[in-house]
């Protein structure tokens, strides 16, 4: 204790950098969850629990309430099944308007997220996709981040990766973007991350911000907790030099001052989803979901119908039928007609001349 109140703990609260009191809070948090029978799910390891403790400044009662609400919410929205369950059929079309996605990793191996939230009209977007579908889409993407992207990045770097780096370009922002529908749209993403996926973001750069964005920030700021606000930097157009300290230029889209164009991907960088999650496995939950999706794809693929092969046409070969052999004519022998062995007497007619006729009748 100092003259000016409680000394601020310099420990980060991440695994491997816990103070004594933080470690005690984690031990008690884990024990309370186990003893109360809240859950025995193995995904909620110490790394997972520490996110809730950091979000509530290691105040056990607040962290416990947050975690209970989180578990109830997961049941209501079937979050355990989200990667497989939520197909979000209208999202591909919606993303043509609202360009965003993951684009590789930053310099320490964290997933790098890029977003252009001011490049679309909210009314046009809501004609393509409903707010309910957007909500389930965000849930699905958070689950993929936790169970597919983070584990793959951890495998790539050989260290535990549990946070992401975000770059939001708000070029095109006007005060007209602050209509009620737009505010509700932003609140959906903020509320899900704040209440159910805390401590996911390591750093966010909001770039190309015009001067009048200060008014918009004043509206959204109350919905973001102080610790998260401290991770956000809002800058104008001259942001590249500082950004490149965190992200290699080769991994930043050219339209945002980097060098990448993703020429081999239709739609460019915002649709590429490039990253180590295509080469490295997720955790057991992510891999199980990926396997189930593959099995569903196989079921959905039409079974090829075999084309009947016509039977070969066999042309019948005529079989020669033996000519009947006439019985011998006894009466012709008495008239002097020669008798051919095996055939009896033969009479051949040629030009009205009959061979074998008696002499004097030719």
**First and last CA, distance:** 157 Å
Structural class call reads: alpha/beta
Q: Note the overall shape.
A: globular
Widest sheet: strand ordering: 1-2-3-4-5
Amount of beta strand: 5-15%
Question: What does the radius of gyration come to?
Answer: 42 Å
How many β-strand runs?
A: 9
* Number of helical stretches of at least 4 residues: 13
Helix content: 25-40%
Low-confidence stretches: 1-6, 330-362
Largest sheet: 5 strands, mixed
Q: Kindly report the average pLDDT value.
A: 86
H/E series, N to C?
HHHHHEEHHEHEHHEHHHEEEE
In short:
Helix content is 40%, strand content 10%.
Structure description:
Residues 1-6 and 330-362 have low confidence and may be disordered. A hairpin with a 3-residue loop joins strand 6 (339-340) and strand 7. With 362 residues, the chain is an alpha/beta fold. The strands form three sheets. A five-stranded mixed sheet has the order 1-2-3-4-5. Strands 6-7 form a two-stranded antiparallel sheet. A two-stranded antiparallel ribbon has the order 8-9. 40% of the residues lie in helices and 10% in strands.
Keywords for this entry:
13 helices; disordered N terminus; 9 strands; 10% strand; 362 residues; five-stranded mixed β-sheet; alpha/beta; disordered C terminus; single chain; globular; two-stranded antiparallel sheet
Which helices and strands, and how do they pair?
Layout: H1 20-35, H2 46-55, H3 60-77, H4 82-85, H5 91-97, E1 100-105, E2 111-115, H6 122-128, H7 131-157, E3 164-169, H8 180-196, E4 201-207, H9 213-220, H10 226-229, E5 232-234, H11 240-243, H12 284-300, H13 330-334, E6 339-340, E7 344-345, E8 348-350, E9 353-355
Parallel strand pairs: 2-3, 3-4, 4-5
Antiparallel strand pairs: 1-2, 6-7, 8-9
């Amino acid at each position: 204790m100092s003259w000016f109140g409680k000394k601020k703990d310099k420990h980060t609260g991440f695994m491997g950098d816990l103070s004594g009191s933080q470690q005690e809070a984690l031990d008690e948090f884990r024990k309370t969850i186990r003893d109360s029978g809240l859950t025995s799910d193995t995904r909620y390891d110490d790394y997972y629990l520490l996110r809730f403790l950091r979000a509530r400044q290691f105040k056990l009662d607040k962290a416990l309430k947050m975690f209970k609400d989180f578990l109830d919410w997961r049941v209501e929205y079937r979050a355990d099944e989200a990667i497989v369950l939520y197909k979000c059929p209208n999202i591909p079309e919606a993303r043509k308007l609202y360009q965003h996605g993951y684009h590789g990793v930053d310099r320490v191996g964290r997933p790098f997220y890029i977003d252009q939230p001011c490049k679309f009209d909210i009314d046009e977007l809501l004609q393509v996709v409903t707010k309910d579908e957007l909500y389930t889409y965000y849930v699905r993407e958070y689950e993929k981040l936790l169970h597919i992207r983070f584990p793959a990045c951890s495998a790539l770097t050989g260290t535990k990766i549990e946070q992401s780096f975000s770059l939001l370009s708000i070029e095109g922002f006007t005060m007209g973007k602050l209509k009620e529908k737009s505010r509700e749209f932003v609140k959906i993403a903020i509320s899900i991350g704040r209440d159910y996926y805390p401590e996911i973001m390591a750093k966010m750069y909001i770039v190309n911000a015009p001067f009048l964005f200060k008014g918009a920030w004043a509206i959204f700021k109350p919905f973001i907790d102080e610790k998260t606000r401290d991770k956000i930097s809002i800058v104008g157009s001259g942001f590249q030099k500082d950004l490149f300290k965190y992200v290699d230029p080769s991994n930043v889209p050219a339209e945002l001052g980097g060098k990448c164009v993703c020429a081999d991907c239709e739609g460019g960088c915002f649709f590429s989803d490039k990253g180590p999650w295509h080469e490295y496995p997720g955790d057991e939950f992510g891999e199980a979901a990926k396997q189930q999706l593959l099995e569903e794809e196989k079921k959905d693929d039409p079974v090829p119908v075999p084309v009947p092969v016509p039977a070969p046409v066999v042309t019948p070969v005529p079989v020669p039928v033996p000519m009947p052999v006439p019985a011998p004519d006894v009466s012709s022998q008495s008239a002097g007609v020669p008798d051919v062995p095996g055939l009896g007497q033969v009479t051949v007619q040629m030009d009205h001349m009959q061979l074998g006729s008696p002499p004097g009748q030719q």
